[in-house]
Predict the structure.
Amino acid sequence: MNPEEVKKLIETGLPDCEVTVSGDGSHFDAIVVGEVFADLSPVKKQQLVYATVSDKITSGVVHALSIKTYTPEEWATASKLQIS
């Protein structure tokens, strides 16, 4: 599986989010930005993203996924500080 395929899975499950994925075929890093994360706990944010790729993780196609979630406001601040 390549980063673009992981990105499409996340975008399908969270269509109103901006998604960036990098990785090496089994280990991936995802940055997901969307208003859907407003007022959610960090665990709930992770669960939302994880649910979009859980089948691939369960099957072993994706071995590891690091997830960073932001609201658009949080991302504006983080990207200015070059935090990703």
About this structure: Residues 42-59 form the longest helix (18 residues).
